[in-house]
Specification:
alpha/beta, Gyrase A, domain 2, Isoleucyl-tRNA Synthetase, Domain 1, 18 helices, globular, RNA-binding
RNA sequence: GCGCCGGUAGCUCAGCUGGAUAGAGCACCAGACUUCGAAUCUGGGGGUCAGGGGUUCGAAUCCCUUCCGGCGCGCCA
């Protein structure tokens, strides 16, 4: 087994497992015992050392031994390890490990050597993952509600990429349902308006926003007045296509403003292209494995359903895969339900080689998860898995007061307005500075505040402060390198073994945690963990900086000691590297100066 | 009625897939600028992890149950 040397926790865990195997060889442990639950974790309390191993407690039952006795046997082996300074047994059987300083120096060197690539992992083994996010209907500009899913999906995709997965970022364009016909009719009104007609108020049920006026103008430019007297059946496909095209263009611009990328824009309409009906194919393949039947559904309970009509229909047996009720695939007019299209779409993902799919949805779609996960299991024969990440609502505030929005009148706050007002970095970071399934208050006044209370600023300032130290150091020592590559080369040669202050070592421990964090966050599909880590790292860095006020010997720059200064600049280089890596992963700028 | 997601300090939230004495920020109180950026930092008080059962060496975390809030519940997407 090769050690992943980038992750110190893996290395030490490997040593603990090796110790277990030594005990197996000597008969002190049963051979072939399962070690997968024996983990090495960072300690919360420094009094417990650097890392804690739970092996003795986890294996005690299978071994038929008392945890503390087993711990003692393991400790005896681990005490000879070249990375380990001290082994103590505590509590119910924890093996507390204190590492030698050289272990932390090695971790710091790793970070400096890796640079931009620090934290990159091979855990994904290049497995293909499809992440679908945003997928906003092409019926208007993006509003703030779309923001969170967009940023979350984008950051999650980057996180998985960094963790070694082969990631495809995808957007599903809902361009086939009834709502794009409504869009077309709304755009047609604007077309008549552009031709000089007085259209009066926009009728109920059509999209009232001004954003369709340019579509009207474009239609005039392209078709003149030729559409005006045609029957709807003739103009609708033309108007619809133009409107969708222009809406998608606007949406892509909005996404670009937020720094959100996609590799694939997948059209729902393309599923039912003239020569090939992929929805029918998907249903047929489910029918082949016996998961489709004609039957009746009980009426929905509780919810008002005056127009409920009991009838026999085509159903997918989603209850066989954990859903609460079987789901219809055809509407009463003979067209496919949205669910049927979605099955075909996810089958397309599977057919394109994705066994891991992640969909990012808004909270209002939560009730849809079970049936979609059921469908993915069914169409893949159990080979593919779908993880649906729900992002909760964002409440937009200004200095604590809710920002009024009225969708009915077409006056909603657009994504673009928010980005223009507070900047993309603030929007992105704050959307990620919360667990995805918890509701989020987004205060337009707070995110531009320059204080610790504003996490974006606080983290970026940490990065800028590091670079400020580099600038000041160059004034004291003009020979120091001026660029990133030079600093990395110098840091790699620096005598970092001179760094023995406890706060300096604490920073190295924090830096050493980053690769482990990436793997944990990627495994859990939780990019917010990166944001919180960066906040913590910044906090430790700011705190250590301030120690230099009371204790000048702890400053990074020691004017009469260029060698010690080199060592400390290497530590700053390590901190700056991790902050830059983490911010880049979240899609947020890492400024070198913020004055 | 059923399902999903939440309930952690006065407020806003973390809690690393079951670890040791539950942590930050804000607010409140008391401090630190001739200084590598005070746009920062140090210290203090503040908790029945909604309530109650259970699982085990060990539970905020897993299971059951009650209460409260949000969302959803053929032919919208």
């Amino acid at each position: 087994m090769t050690e992943n040397t980038a992750n110190l926790f893996d290395v030490v865990q490997g040593r603990v497992h090796a110790a277990c195997e030594t005990l197996m060889a000597s008969g002190a442990l049963p051979a072939g015992i399962d070690l997968s639950r024996a983990m090495v974790e960072p300690t919360k309390d420094a009094a417990h050392g650097d890392m804690a191993a739970n092996a003795a407690m986890v294996l005690a039952k299978d071994a038929g031994k008392k945890p503390r006795d087993l711990a003692e046997a393991l400790a005896a082996i681990l005490r000879g390890d070249d990375l380990i300074e001290k082994v103590e047994i505590a509590g119910p059987g924890f093996i507390n490990l204190t590492l030698k300083h050289s272990a932390w120096f090695g971790a710091l060197r790793n970070a400096i050597d890796a640079g931009d690539a620090y934290g990159c992992s091979t855990m994904g083994a290049r497995e293909k993952v499809n992440v679908e996010y945003v997928s906003a209907n092409p019926t208007g500009p993006m509003h703030v509600g779309h923001c969170r899913g967009a940023v979350f999906g984008d950051a999650l995709a980057t996180l998985l990429d960094v963790a070694g997965f082969d990631v495809t970022r995808e957007y599903y364009i809902n361009d086939a349902g009834a709502q794009v016909d409504v869009l077309a009719r709304s755009a047609f009104l604007r077309y008549r308006e552009a031709l000089g007609e007085n259209i009066g108020d926009i009728p109920e049920g059509l999209y009232p926003g001004d954003y369709l006026k340019p579509v009207g103008g474009a239609l005039v430019a392209e078709y003149g007045s030729s559409l005006k007297d045609k029957p709807e059946a003739e103009w609708l496909p033309l108007v619809r296509a133009k409107a969708i095209e222009m809406m998608m263009l606007a949406i892509r611009e909005d996404l670009a403003a937020l720094n959100v990328r996609h590799d694939v824009f997948f059209s729902e309409r393309s599923l039912v292209a003239k020569d090939k009906d992929q929805v029918a194919d998907a249903i047929a393949s489910l029918r082949k494995v016996g998961e489709i039947y004609e039957g009746r559904l009980p009426p929905p309970k509780g919810a008002p359903a005056e127009d409920w009509e009991d009838r026999e229909q085509t159903l997918f047996r989603s209850t066989a895969f954990g859903d609460d009720v079987d789901r219809p695939l055809m509407k009463s007019d003979g067209s496919y339900t949205y669910f049927a299209s979605d099955i075909a779409y996810h089958k397309s993902k599977f057919d394109r080689g994705f066994n891991q799919m992640i969909d990012v949805w808004g909270a209002d779609h939560g009730g849809y998860i079970k049936r979609m996960a059921a469908a993915v299991k069914a169409i893949s024969g159990g080979k593919a898995a779908l993880d649906v990440k729900i992002v909760q609502l964002v409440k937009l505030l200004r200095a604590g007061e809710p920002v009024k929005m009225s969708k009915r009148s077409g006056e909603f706050v657009t994504l673009r307005e928010v980005v223009d007002e507070v900047g993309r970095d603030a929007v992105r970071f704050m959307m990620l500075f919360r667990k995805n399934d918890a509701a989020l208050d987004f205060d337009l006044a707070k995110v531009i505040e320059q204080s610790r209370d504003n996490a974006v600023f606080y983290v970026q300032y940490g990065h800028a402060r590091g670079h400020s130290i580099f600038r000041m150091a160059r004034e004291a020592f003009p020979d120091l390198p001026t660029d990133e590559a030079g600093r990395r080369a110098a840091a790699a040669k620096a005598p970092i073994e001179k760094l023995t202050d406890s706060a300096e070592l604490a920073l190295m421990r924090k830096i050493a945690l980053y690769p482990r964090l990436i793997e944990a966050a990627a495994g859990a599909h939780e990019p917010h963990r990166i944001a919180f880590y960066l906040y913590d790292l910044s906090s430790e860095f700011h705190a250590h900086w301030t120690r230099g006020r009371d204790s000048p010997n702890l400053r990074f720059i020691i004017k009469d000691d260029p060698v010690l200064t080199d060592a400390r600049l290497a530590l700053v280089q390590g901190v700056v590297t991790v902050l830059a890596c983490g911010l880049s992963l979240l899609g947020v700028e890492a400024p070198e100066e913020m004055r």
